[in-house]
Design goal:
Largest sheet: 14 strands, antiparallel
Distance between the termini: 16 Å
Order of helices and strands: EEEEEEEEEEEEEEEEEE
Number of helices: 0
Shape: elongated
Radius of gyration: 27 Å
Number of domains: 1
Structural class: mainly beta
Helix content: under 10%
Oligomer: single chain
Length: about 300
């Protein structure tokens, strides 16, 4: 008597849920898929850009300047079987002053604000478009005050990065048009957080003390480009592999073969989000199935043990 081969345990690589039964219109609980699925996703990012350009005369007096400041905040929240919401805010501020002849004119100071709110309806799979509403000065950014927007940007990842960057476009130079010595500078500040939260639905009847053996397969890659703004193409970004033994679910970690064996209670819906200590930006893929051993004699399968 020997045990049959274990299932492959390979993980789905598209970063979203396998398709389950359709969501009904009666408001009842949704038809969750059996196995590992993406239960919710939350992300937020902030981008601040400040550009300065100054023109100095031969005495060192700042005769003209341009100041452009932009701040962008974007967030999205989605829950399987519930739907989601999001928001984007853009704020621009412009301060221009030219004093040097023949370009002298009155200073201008302008502030522009645009806000877009997103709503996504109930779904078990994040592939449905939603409705967006724009307020403020959003000319040129949106087709109408209310419009159909894309599906939520969802994937299996963890991100917690921030950085600041100062850029000098060029060394001070003398402009041939006005004779002033110009200096151009740009400062960028950026932070982004994102997490995909996983669950595993074990299926079967919920009987006290009854458990089943599960085999899970998992992998993860470290994202090397920290400046990514959206997760849409995260799987195509420069990356490097992560040792599967560093991937934990609770207190257990995957083996060097990328597999993890666990006994789980039947009829349960359990948190199953992998974590990797010491990494601030990574994408992961995880999947699994209930293992059903069987008895085999002379290459003939005699009994499947449930």
């Amino acid at each position: 008597m020997r045990r049959g081969p274990a299932p492959s345990g390979s993980a789905a690589g598209n970063g979203v849920n396998p398709r389950a039964g359709a969501v009904g219109d009666n408001g009842s609980d949704w038809d969750k898929p059996l196995g590992v699925y993406l239960a919710s996703y939350h992300s937020a990012r902030n981008l601040h850009v400040n550009e300065e350009s100054d023109g100095y005369d031969w005495t060192g007096v700042d005769q003209d300047w341009e100041r452009f400041t932009s701040d962008t905040h974007h967030e999205e929240h989605w829950t399987s079987g519930v739907g989601g919401h999001g928001q984007q805010q853009d704020l621009w501020q412009e301060d221009i002053k030219y004093q040097y002849q023949p370009y002298q004119h009155n200073p201008s100071d302008q502030v522009t604000h645009c806000q877009i709110d997103y709503q996504w309806g109930k779904s078990d799979y994040p592939d449905q478009p939603g409705t967006a509403t724009a307020t403020g000065d959003c000319n040129g950014q949106v087709p109408a005050a209310t419009f159909t927007c894309r599906q939520p940007e969802v994937t299996t990842e963890h991100c917690g990065v921030e950085f600041e960057l100062d850029t000098f476009y060029a060394s001070p130079y003398v402009s041939q048009s006005d004779g002033l010595t110009h200096s151009d500078h740009r400062h960028t500040g950026y932070d982004r957080t994102a997490d995909g939260y996983m669950k595993v639905r074990t299926g079967g009847k919920q009987i006290p003390g009854q458990q089943s053996l599960w085999e899970f397969g998992g992998s993860a890659v470290k994202i090397l480009d920290k400046t990514v703004l959206t997760p849409t193409y995260i799987h195509a970004l420069p990356s490097s592999g992560i040792d599967p033994t560093k991937i934990y679910v609770g207190e257990k970690h995957f083996g060097s073969d990328g597999l993890l064996w666990m006994t789980l209670p039947d009829g349960a819906d359990l948190p199953f989000t992998p974590t990797i200590q010491g990494e601030d930006f990574y994408s992961f893929s995880i999947g699994g199935s209930k293992y059903k051993p069987y008895i085999q004699a002379n290459t003939v399968r005699l009994l499947v043990c449930h």
